[in-house]
């Protein structure tokens, strides 16, 4: 339960579609949640 | 030989949504069903049982209006009429599934499927003829499960029955014994109990509804006893003898002592067995575990890459919504989309009286994982809406991580528990904290307020009950 990053189902799906490992995404959302923008930010540079 | 992109075996809540989703994703799909579309759930499981439960609830409520000043006399059940009504619902829904499959462009074939190769399926029709089909991409096993029969209580379709017959009884047994105090046994047992049957529950384990928060189970047990029922735990049903008058004497062993209980009908509800035998799976090298379940990975794939398994046949929990979700995931994976089983928790709803619904970890499970927990609890007995409904039994219990305050599990016993658990499920999926639930404005007066208050209670801030 707690090893999983805090992220909503939609964010989890986005990460999957972009091939981003959620555990690598630095969270900026409220109370440490990973947001969609966090996922996109990590995906962008590559 | 006809060729499809994908072939789905079984048209239950796993198979038919899988076929529909495949068709939506522009895959040429065949769905094979040996009985009726809709599977166990529509034909003799979820829907029929819920129809009877709602009739039983109305029957009971209609007689319990005295406290509200409503006097009713001569309330009668016409079991034939009730069955006709239920069968009408089943017909409407299965007809709907048929049209949905067709409307989406999925082909349906009636017959028994056998897997004869990693991408080949034979279908035996009712007339004995065999047709061959080929899948270019995948075969999906969605064959579900069937009732477990115990050798000493062979079904005779009348006195010794399974769930399938129990949802179709056109009479109310005077004395009903239920062997197996699980979800199906208690749901159906309580239906006939509400209609006046004397209910006797025989459970081999020390508790009814194993795995459910025992605080919740207790409330339902109390109701069974209050209505004059009997519960034998740690008890084994050994066998039975038919009496001259058509009743049966069932020999049970409880606490080391043997006794005979005379009843009119015995419902055997000790569980469901996966339908994985005789499908040809062994021949094509698909792994089947000891219990008969077909293990799959997070993409619903078996060990044979072209063969997928979903729903009851792929393992517990044996629930319709789990089957449907896996059906959608398998379809998306087959169509080349990125999908996987990534849910946080699968909710469970138990339609006893009162209902129990649960999602996530129980208090005991969280502690077993070594987590320190905060517990919040709010009883319906102090909730205005529950009082107005005259249904005040039960409570909402929330289990949260003590340090982070993340919600780990929600357990509800009481009116509309099955409806309220959806908000709890969303909370778990969204990784909600106790504050997320307690800071969300819930309309007043509603049953849902109890969730908000239970979350507040876990933080020592409930308004309508004392905080510890
Ligand atoms: C009395 C009762 C009440 C229930 N209530 C609930 C409830 O309230 N909520 C809930 O979530 N779940 C409930 N369940 C469980 C639910 O019915 C199952 O979890 C669900 O039906 C599983 O779906 P499935 O698609 O995996 O399999 P099934 O519904 O079992 O469907 C499998 C289909 O495959 C067909 N089939 C099998 N083998 C072959 C073959 N070789 N060729 C062609 N076709 C084949 C079968 O005929 C069947 O139609 C209940 C079950 C029972 C018995």
| Bound heterogens, unique | flavin-adenine dinucleotide
Radius of gyration of chain A from CA coordinates: 10 Å
Q: Estimate what percentage of residues of chain A fall within beta strands.
A: under 5%
Alpha carbon gap, first and last residue of chain A: 30 Å
**Total strands of chain A:** 0
Extract low-pLDDT stretches of chain B: none
- What summary fits the major beta sheet of chain A? none
Cofactor (chain B): FAD
InterPro entries (chain B): Class-I_Pyr_Nuc-Dis_Oxidored, FAD/NAD-bd_sf, FAD/NAD-binding_dom, FAD/NAD-linked_Rdtase_dimer_sf, Lipoamide_DH, Pyr_nuc-diS_OxRdtase, Pyr_nucl-diS_OxRdtase_dimer, Pyr_OxRdtase_I_AS
Catalytic activity (chain B): N(6)-[(R)-dihydrolipoyl]-L-lysyl-[protein] + NAD(+) = N(6)-[(R)-lipoyl]-L-lysyl-[protein] + NADH + H(+)
Keywords (chain B): Disulfide bond, FAD, Flavoprotein, NAD, Oxidoreductase, Redox-active center
Describe the protein's architecture and organization.
The complex is a heterodimer of chains A (46) and B (468). Chain A has 46 residues and is mainly alpha-helical. Chain A is 39% helix and 0% strand. Chain A contains 2 helices and no strands. Chain A is globular and about 25 Å long. The N and C termini of chain A lie far apart (30 Å). In chain B, a hairpin with a 4-residue loop joins strand 18 and strand 19. In chain B, helix 1 (15-24) packs parallel to helix 4 and helix 1 (15-24) packs parallel to helix 8. The longest helix of chain B is centred in the N-terminal third of the chain and has 26 residues, at 79-104. Classes of the chains: A mainly alpha (46), B alpha/beta (468). At the A-B interface, helix 1 of A face loops of B.
Keywords:
A: 46 residues, mainly alpha, B: 468 residues, alpha/beta, seven-stranded mixed β-sheet, 31% helix, globular, binds flavin-adenine dinucleotide, FAD/NAD-linked_Rdtase_dimer_sf (chain B), disulfide bond (chain B)
Condensed summary:
The complex is a heterodimer of chains A (46) and B (468). By secondary structure, chain A is an all-alpha fold.
